[in-house]
């Protein structure tokens, strides 16, 4: 009996040892699997993990509970948990429920998330940034540009407030070029020269004609400046010349003023201003014209050629050289001819070099449209009428003086570019044209000149190669019953082949504004009339489609701009039309 008992106990111990070996083997395998799973999860979350949220295994002796947390450096590795040495060697500890490797989550509802966020706030913010960055992965910039370029201008301005990326994307030259060449533009009318409480406010009123909505643009750079002219070139507006008061800055005061020769460029798409090269002479209310020219156009060559063909005059008293000593005149002519011959042997290379240099510069601009801005007439520094002119090249970014008006032309009151010719109408009812490509003036004789009221200056506009003039005509009733004398504004068209004026339309409103402004865009003629009556300033915006047979006028806005404006705004106003 005694000899068999030790054999049974030995068998029992052997079974326990085998069970303990298998149990340790299972624990090692489970730890390796857990470590592998946690490593894969950590790779998916970019290695962002913190303190483990599960309690360690609970062992109890006498009803006690042990709650452990990770205290090692590698929080994500649960195999490095600090455990009791008794649990490793199995010294009497037993699991309360389940197997030894099972864990119990002893956090209450919601505490687990709070505990994780508290100790892993930076990691949580990093995860959010990663998620936000992944939102744009499936929307390339090209697709985003195609979506944004189709937005109306007001929606595009709102979209720029979304984020810095959208703001940068919608202001790049590539995006602006896509919008300029696209078919998603709508006409916008810009009104300048607003005066409030005798001060130049600098506000620009813009009308979205597709939605019939007015918008106000604050232009601090225009505060204090008045009597300037504006012209639109593609999607930009040039502000040329103007005056500002010296004694009372900001007020419309012509008792003591300064005339400017500076030029500014306003881009409505980006709401940005920048200064361009100033004119050679200060001008207020100059007459502007914009024309598209070829890539090999050169203003300096044409102007230099015209200077060489001028009649030489003496510096003393302006007397011609013909009336001086004939012998001295013949000697000077001989020396001049010999000098010209010697100079012709040296200068051609220099002139050809300059021409080739300009041509090479222009060749780099191939594919881009080139425009010139012509400014003539206006009032000078001492408020005197000017008969000179200048031309600005968008490529060279310089102003070049051009030839003055023809003799006895008078004071220019209106002008427009039509088919490469800059037409100017004077207060003395004379018409002249400046050939922009060739660089000289032509006096144009038309028969008959349309009759007009001399207090109202005529306005020239051009629509798709057609030249129109709007003038106020006095209609008499001829004593008939029901008819009375009245003034009407008529539209005349000039036949550029036979130089005859023909009446084509009549403006529906009575001509209450002697300084009405008209501008053309495509087949449309836009007009603005502002006047003060019964102590209130009124405004009327009209439009006419010249492609229609009847050329009927229609109102697009009434009394939306002049609610807070002064009567001096009728004199300082100017207008431009853009497609944005």
Automatic annotation (TrEMBL):
Q: Which residues form the F-box domain?
A: 133-179
- Could you tell me which SUPFAM superfamilies the record lists for this protein? F-box domain (SSF81383), Kelch motif (SSF117281)
Q: Which GO terms describe its cellular component?
A: SCF ubiquitin ligase complex
Note the SMART domains from the entry.
FBOX (SM00256)
Please name the InterPro entries in this protein's record.
F-box-like_dom_sf, F-box_dom, Gal_Oxidase_central_sf, Kelch-typ_b-propeller, Kelch_1
Q: What is this protein called?
A: F-box domain-containing protein
